[in-house]
Every structure is written in C-alpha cells, then in structure tokens.
Specification:
Elements (H helix, E strand, L loop, with lengths): L2 H27 L10 H27 L10 H32 L14 H11 L2 H27 L7 H20 L18 H7 L2 H7 L10 H15 L13 E3 L8 E7 L18 H9 L1 E7 L5 H10 L30 E6 L8 H8 L3 E4 L16 H13 L5 E6 L11 H7 L6 H6 L5 H21 L8 E7 L14 H4 L6 E7 L7 E3 L3 E2 L3 H9 L3 E3 L16 E6 L4 E6 L2 E6 L5 E5 L8 H27 L8
Parallel strand pairs: 2-6, 2-7, 3-9, 3-10, 4-5, 4-6
Antiparallel strand pairs: 1-11, 3-8, 7-8, 12-13, 13-14, 14-15
Helix pairs in contact: 1-2, 1-5, 2-6, 2-7, 3-5, 9-19, 13-16
C-alpha cells in the first residue's frame, strides 16, 4: 500500500481510539449505566457513526492535500513539517476539547456546545469561577500529558508509514486512494439515505442522557455555533408576565421565575382516538370554504359543514418545520435565523401529547422525518412514538417527498385499523408542494383540470399544476375518510385537520385588502375538528391559532393534562373574543397579533408599525386607532418575548 494511505488510515484509527475511549470513560463514570432502558449497543453504534463523520473529514483533507507535491509528507521536507505541526496542534486541540467536554458534562449534564462562548464577555468572572471550581493546574497538566502521548503515537505512525516499502503499482494505489475517498465520504454523510446523519438522530433514543452520550463533542460544538447567541430576555419576559398570566388565567402572586404551567382536570370518561392531519400549504383563500370560485376543495368543505370549523385560524409563521414545531410544542418558533427544530440547544420540549396516557402514538409521513431534524424533536419529546416514513410502506415513492398522500392515508388506515389500544396519530401530507406530482395511478379517477392563466391568477393560483395539486389534496382527504368510515375505530375518533401554513399571494376581492397587502394569506389556514358521532357541527369565527390545537384536542378528549405553553382550549373559553393569534414573518422580520377585527404589525428592523382592519377596507377611526394600537403592541411583544423564553424553558419532566 502507498505510504500516504497507510499514514492516513493509522492516523484516523488513532483518533478513533481516542474518541471511543472518551465515550466509554463517560459511560462508566457519569452514571449512564443506572436505569438504562434503551439498547446501549445502539447508542454506542450511533456514537461511533458521529465519530466516523469527523474522522471522514480528516481523512478526505489529508488525502486531497497530500496530492499537492509540496504538501506530500513523504516527498517534501516542507510537507513533513507541515503535517507533523498541524497534527500536533490538532492533537492538543482534540484533547483540550474532550477534557473541557468532560467538565462541561459534569457541570451541566450536556456535551460541550457553543453556548460556552457566551461567557467570554464576562472574562474575569468566568475565569474566577473556573479557578475556584476546578483543579485548573492539574487539568492543564493532564491536557499537556495526554497531548504529548497522542503526539508521540502520531510520530510513531509517521515513521512506520515512511519506512514502509511500496510494492503496489500506480494503478493499484490509485484504486486504493479512490476507495478510501469513497469510504470517507460515506462516513461523512453517515447513512445510505436521502438525508445525512444529523445531530437530531441522537435525540431519537428516547432518553436525553443517552442522547448526550452518543453525541460527538466536536460536532456538538460546531453544530450549535450558529445558535450560540440565540437566547431570551428574562427582564422583558417578566415585564409582560402579568399580561400573559391574565391571558392564561395563572396566579401571578407566585414568586420566582415566570410560570406558565396550568393543570386541567378532565372527565376521564372517554378515550376517543385522535387523528391529527397536518396539511401541506393548505391556504385558506385558495379553498372552497371561503368561496373560491375554482371550488378546489368541495369534499373538505362538506366535512367542515359537518364538524367544528374555525374559519379564522392562523399559523404563527410560514414553513412546514415551524408549523410542526408549533403544533407539537405549543410555542411559536420565533428564532429569526434557523428553525427551532434544528437547534440542538432547545430540542428538549414538553408536549401535551404525552398526557394522552395509555394511547399508542404514531407519526406518518410519506418521506423522511430526518428533514429539518423533525425526527429528533418527535422521538426525543413524545414518549413511545412510532414513526412511519419512507422505507416502511409497501407503496412506491412518487417524488422527493416520498409516497403519494393518498397512499400515505391508506397506509396509515391499515395501521390504525389494527390497533387494540386508543391511539393518537399524526399524519403529515406533502403533495401540495412543488413539484406538484399527481401520481399516474390516480389521474383517471382524479381528473386533471385546466383554466386560463388570468383566471388562475385572479383566484390565487400561479399555474394549473399548483391548482391541481391543491385539488389532489381534497381527493386524498376523500379517499382517506371513505376508507376510515368502513373501520370500527371511526365512530370513536376525532379527526383534526389544520394547514401547516398558508401561501403568500393575492387574495383579490375574496378578502379585504389587508389580507393581501399585509400578507395574512401566508398564515391563514383551515382548522377542523371532525367526529360525526362525537361532535355537533359548529362554525366559529373567533381568532384561533395552531398553538391552540393540542389543548383543544385534550379538552375534547376529556383527559387530565398540563399545559405549559401558549395555546388555549378553544371550546372551553369563557370569552372567545379574547383569543388572539401571534404571527412572525421571518422573511421580513416583523411580529404581529391578530385580535378581534384588527391586525397589528411591528417591524423588528426599523420599528415601523401598522394597524389595519381585517374585516373591511375602511380606515380605522382616529379615536379608536391609538388605544387599539397601544393594546395590541403590548400583546405582540408579550407573545414574542414569552415565546422566546419558553423555547428555552419548556423542558419535559424526565421519567424516572
């Protein structure tokens, strides 16, 4: 084998031994072995994959740079000095990171992450705290000693590789180098799948301690770099706490940190099944419930007439990942840059779904939950959840989003019909999304339509492809409900449908001008609770939000639950006029509240404000405008600051 390939392989092997040794050290010294309920072998294998990802990067860098003549360590004097110097620095850095990681874990029960850099501005205080808490001199000596040992072995590896006699020809060496590159690339990607290995896979273990054990501290640190300045303003949270406590009906006399937890006692008499359907891009103004002349969703419109329908429901934000987050946790995703689901520092969240005791919990998606790290959010926070995704269905993938929504619904029905226990199932659709695929197997029954371009634009669509994808959603709803009605579970099941978000666009004359001019179309979605045997038909015009869904479902089910976040039970409010919907438009960075007849918006970049009517095109009377603006400004900032706080302070209670 070529000297350089031998050198790379042995160097990577040495670092792999160091990383694996550290994980075993934590395993046996940090209490991980007490009360473990998860397969420890699976945890260690996942940890190994994280380590191999970092080592794959090292191997590729060493391989590619080694091809440069003056950086070849065995043919260039400069190359030899460069690599021995670089690897020595890398060795010291790895040892330093792993020792600091051990101290960080001992102190906070978390692997090293970039939040530690937030202490740098308070340098004197932080240094003094470290000096008084840890044996700093001994730790520095330990780091120096371990670094020296690691560098010694790296030098021995270099000498061993250099003394190797090369017998293979150039062709064989080229093939060996190519094979090494391919294997390293696979290690970097981490799996044979559509999505790479991500930090969130560690949080699919169902035990936060084991998630931390599996993580690689180098990856953990750099994955959290982008989030290190993401935090909340506790002083602002306290300022608005009385307003929010009044909104939630919380006793404000309790001392200490703001508290949002409220316990709701249920009747416990029934245990209806729950099927929550999160519908891709289910924009209100494009659908039949609001009279769109293209009549895109006639079947769903019929369901709305037979169920409890909320026609003023808003998602807090645009984007599927954010919509799933808000629905599952009850907190608007107010992070301004990356989605909350991608932030490893706030993955641990309480969800009302866990209060459905004795329920089977299932999540169905046609594609992969590795997208946007949703899998980590679900499996880390919902106890006993079973995820059904691409690869687990006996239906063919139709595009990038996996199997068709029709087949997704039918596959879900097959699973649900076999249940013996009550169930809480979430089904996430995706076909109403580019590339707007209508499966060939459904085209005859579905019947694709076509309209002139000016007609499409007038009623909110950009193309016939988009229109037909929207119509296909309705077709899939119909196929699902027709199948479900034949099952024994149907009469004891509450079906809940909500859009994950709306679509920014021109609502024309179908809504007042503010809906288009102020982008309310981006957030306005249908919300339906459908259970013909359990619920009487009702139509509500009250303002509602995605964050209200789980409390309302819990109220319908009559369960005992703890609500720790922003939503309220829509069907048990004393005064429905008080409910509001908080909105945040990440694209233009404004925050807003819809309340009563008005929308208030505040631009975060320049503090510009707007108050508009959502019921007509008339100007707001001057005598009303000032008072309403002041009131809604307070509400807007109260919801914004409270959401920021709760993202970091809504951890679930760990099961013993």
């Amino acid at each position: 084998m070529h000297k350089r390939l031998t050198w790379i392989l042995l160097t990577v092997l040495l670092f792999f031994i160091v990383m694996s040794g550290d994980r075993l050290f934590l395993l046996f010294t940090s209490g991980f072995l007490h009360g473990i309920s998860t397969n420890l072998f699976h945890v260690l294998v996942l940890g190994t994959r994280y380590d191999l990802r970092e080592l794959g990067i090292l191997a590729v860098v060493m391989l590619l740079l080694g091809f440069i003549p003056f950086l070849d360590p065995f043919r260039s004097s400069f190359g030899k000095k460069f690599w021995l110097g670089l690897l020595s620095v890398l060795s010291a850095l790895v040892v330093f990171i792993y020792v600091i990681d051990a101290m960080h874990f001992d102190y906070l029960s978390q692997r090293l992450n970039a939040s530690i850099l937030n202490f740098l501005p308070e340098g004197n205080t932080s240094v003094l705290m470290v000096w008084q808490t840890y044996p700093v001199i001994k730790l520095l000596l330990l780091i120096a000693a371990l670094s020296a040992v690691l560098i010694f072995f790296l030098l021995r590896i270099f000498i061993h590789a250099g003394n190797q006699i090369e017998t293979a020809g150039r062709r064989k060496n080229s093939l060996s180098g190519t094979a090494l590159f391919v294997v390293a690339a696979l290690c970097i990607f981490g799996r044979l799948d559509q999505y790479p290995l991500r930090w969130s896979d560690a949080f699919c273990l169902g035990d936060s301690r084991l998630s931390q054990l599996a993580l690689n501290p180098i990856q953990s640190f750099f994955s959290s770099m982008r989030f290190r300045n993401v935090s909340y303003d506790e002083q602002a949270t306290r300022k608005y706490y009385p307003l929010m406590a009044n909104y939630f009906g919380i006793d404000t006399t309790i001392a200490g940190k703001p508290r949002y937890s409220r316990v709701v006692s249920g009747s416990g008499l029934t245990k209806p099944n729950i099927v929550l359907v999160i519908c891709e891009s289910f924009s209100a103004y494009k659908s039949s419930m609001w009279g769109n002349p293209l009549n895109t969703t006639p079947y769903f419109n019929t369901l709305c007439e037979q169920g409890i329908f909320f026609n003023h429901c808003f998602t807090p934000h645009f984007g599927t990942a954010r919509g799933v987050w808000a629905t599952v946790t009850g907190i608007p995703d107010v992070l301004l840059d990356k989605t909350a689901s991608r932030n490893p520092m706030i993955v641990d969240q309480h969800s009302i779904i866990n209060d459905f005791k004795g329920y089977d919990k299932d999540y169905f998606i046609g594609g992969s939950t590795s997208w946007a790290n949703i899998k980590g959010v679900l499996e880390n926070n919902i106890q006993g959840i079973t995820i059904h995704e691409q690869g687990s269905y006996n239906a063919q993938k139709v595009d990038v989003w996996g199997i068709s929504d029709k087949n997704l619904f039918l596959q879900a029905n097959e699973v649900l019909r076999a249940k013996n226990a009550p169930f809480f199932a979430v089904i996430q659709t995706s076909d109403n999304h580019r590339p707007y695929t209508i499966p060939k197997e459904d085209q005859a029954a579905f019947k694709i339509v076509s309209f002139p371009q000016d007609t499409l634009v007038k009623y909110g669509f950009q193309s016939n492809d988009e229109l037909n994808a929207f119509r296909y959603t309705d077709f899939c709803f119909q196929k699902f409900m027709e199948a479900a009605k034949k099952e024994t579970y149907f009469n004891n099941t509450v079906f809940v449908f909500v859009g994950d978000h709306g679509i920014r666009g021109n609502a024309g004359d179908m809504f007042p001008k503010a809906w288009t001019a102020n982008a309310l179309t981006c957030f306005h979605v249908p919300l339906l609770f459908y259970a013909p045997a359990l619920l009487k038909p009702e139509k509500h015009t009250m303002i509602s939000s995605q964050v209200d869904i789980l409390p309302t479902i819990a109220g319908i089910a009559g369960i005992h639950y703890t609500n720790t976040t922003m939503g309220r039970d829509l069907l048990h409010l004393k005064d429905t006029t008080t409910n509001v919907a908080f909105l945040i438009d990440h694209d233009v960075r404004n925050i807003a509240v819809v309340s009563g007849d008005y929308l208030f918006q505040r631009q975060l970049n320049n503090n510009n404000e707007a108050l508009v009517s959502i019921t007509n095109n008339l100007p707001i009377p001057k005598e009303t405008e000032t008072a309403v603006t002041d009131q809604m400004r307070q509400l807007t900032f109260a919801f914004y600051e409270t959401s920021r706080y709760l993202l970091f302070n809504n951890r679930k209670v760990q099961s013993k």
